[in-house]
Write a structure and sequence with these properties.
Helix content: over 70%
Oligomer: single chain
Structural class: mainly alpha
Number of helices: 21
Distance between the termini: 32 Å
Number of strands: 0
């Protein structure tokens, strides 16, 4: 049975995932409104995406966050990082020109990246042996709640949404009744970002009250007592001098990268599938996307009850088989609502039982405390950076009018197959073991 403190701290830290996914979706859903308001070009939008929480901003932040979390502690991140996030979100919602908007996207993206290594690390280190997988799943449920809630808010406050009248009244009260239509419409996006500011403020108050990771403190005290070098460069030297550790780094990087390359472009693919192949309106497409995220949350909730009781391999394979079946439907052809629902359900199951769940779990288990967050930050940097490059390559494969749609789908299938095969053959046996036991199995008594 979980201790109350473990569950409470997991929920507090998991809000970081809500803010991560929420920032990505809020940015994407409001781009058209900002484009019309500020007269932005496609190049401007490309820069916003490139330095956002989905790409380079988060990649840079992960390196910074991993280093800081290992050197100064996990609590250090939770004391200060969300202040940076709130500053970034506030800059976005107050933006009146492109430099302000770009700065807001960058600051928010960096903050998101800083929080990721610390959150997965802290959850694992504060969890009981038989609840570690469950707590990681709770964190991933928050990752699903973010897009679901932000999409719903976006639909309600959008210019054709049910609550736009209230948005219009607020806009007129702040900037005047004679303001341009685009200036009023962008208040829809400002309100969505304000909701993230509120959640970040609540999360900050919860997280700064957390205790420091006991394992991190014990490792620091032991290292200082022995006079060991606790610098990051030394820690990575130890990491990459251990053949098993190098194999684990390669294993985790490959399974997460190949899966994430597919997941990162789904925001580009889904509008085409829903609106073009499925013939849905934008509002209907957004609603179906919300349903998809609800399936993600539901699937992860179910997984949380079984992940610590049965071999991880079963669930890992199940999630990727669902993803492959979803893309098989795309290749064969989406025929009406039945095909759309089948795709939505299967892709939602994949995201709920995703490679990211196991990457977060295994990535926090397979490295010693002294460079656990740093190693995750390094891998997250690599994955998000390559995903940003892949996004540019993907648009070239896809084509201006979607003429490369089928070729792109086959690329997705190939990447998912790599993730499936590598994960199936390299799946580590960590279930039911303490972090100390796992560390000793891989690195010996002295790291």
């Amino acid at each position: 049975m979980a201790k109350h403190g473990s569950l409470k701290s997991t929920i507090a830290v998991s809000l970081t995932n809500y803010l991560d996914a929420g920032a990505i979706v809020a940015g994407a859903s409001g781009l058209t409104l900002w484009k019309d308001y500020l007269g932005l070009s496609e190049m401007h939008l490309g820069w916003l995406n490139f330095i956002s929480a989905n790409c380079l901003g988060a990649a840079l932040g992960a390196i910074i966050g991993g280093v800081l979390a290992d050197k100064y502690g996990r609590k250090f991140i939770y004391t200060y990082n969300l202040l940076v996030y709130m500053a970034g979100v506030l800059t976005i919602l107050l933006s009146v020109n492109f430099p302000m908007l770009l700065a807001g996207f960058l600051i928010t993206g960096v903050s998101v990246g800083i929080g990721v290594p610390a959150s997965w690390t802290y959850i694992s280190e504060s969890s009981e042996v038989n609840n570690r997988g469950r707590n990681i799943c709770i964190s991933q449920m928050s990752w699903g709640f973010g897009p679901m809630c932000i999409l719903l808010l976006g639909m309600l406050f959008a210019p054709d949404g049910y609550l736009f009248g209230w948005v219009e009244s607020l806009g007129h009260a702040i900037i005047g009744t004679e303001s341009a239509e685009a200036a009023i419409n962008v208040f829809s996006s400002r309100i969505v970002f304000f909701s993230l500011f509120v959640v970040a403020f609540i999360a900050w108050n919860l997280q700064r009250g957390l205790d420091e990771s006991a394992e991190w403190k014990a490792n620091k005290e032991a290292s200082h007592a022995k006079g060991e070098n606790t610098g990051l460069i030394h820690a990575f030297g130890v990491l990459f001098s251990n053949k098993i550790a190098v194999r684990m780094v390669a294993f985790l990087a490959v399974i997460y990268l190949t899966w994430n390359l597919v997941a990162s472009v789904m925001g580009f693919f889904q509008p085409h599938i829903y609106e073009t192949a499925g013939g849905l309106s934008n509002e209907q497409a957004n609603l179906l996307s919300c349903v998809g995220w609800a399936i993600v949350v539901g699937t992860t909730f179910v997984l949380s009850h079984f992940i610590d009781r049965f071999p991880h391999l079963y669930f890992y394979i199940f999630g990727l088989l669902a993803a492959l079946c979803a893309w098989a439907i795309i290749i064969v052809g989406v025929n009406g609502m039945t095909g759309l629902w089948a795709f939505t359900i299967l892709w939602g199951i994949n995201n709920g039982c995703s490679v990211q769940v196991f990457y977060a779990l295994w990535g926090s288990e397979l490295f010693p405390a002294k460079f656990r967050a740093g190693a995750q930050g390094l891998m997250f940097f690599i994955v998000r950076s390559l995903s940003a490059v892949w996004g540019l390559v993907f648009t070239y494969i896809y084509g201006e009018q979607g003429e490369g749609f089928t070729v792109a789908a086959y690329c997705m299938v190939a990447l998912l197959l790599v993730s499936l095969l590598v994960g199936a053959f390299g799946c580590p046996n960590t279930r039911g073991k303490s972090l100390d036991t796992i560390t000793k199995e891989h690195y010996g008594e002295h790291v």
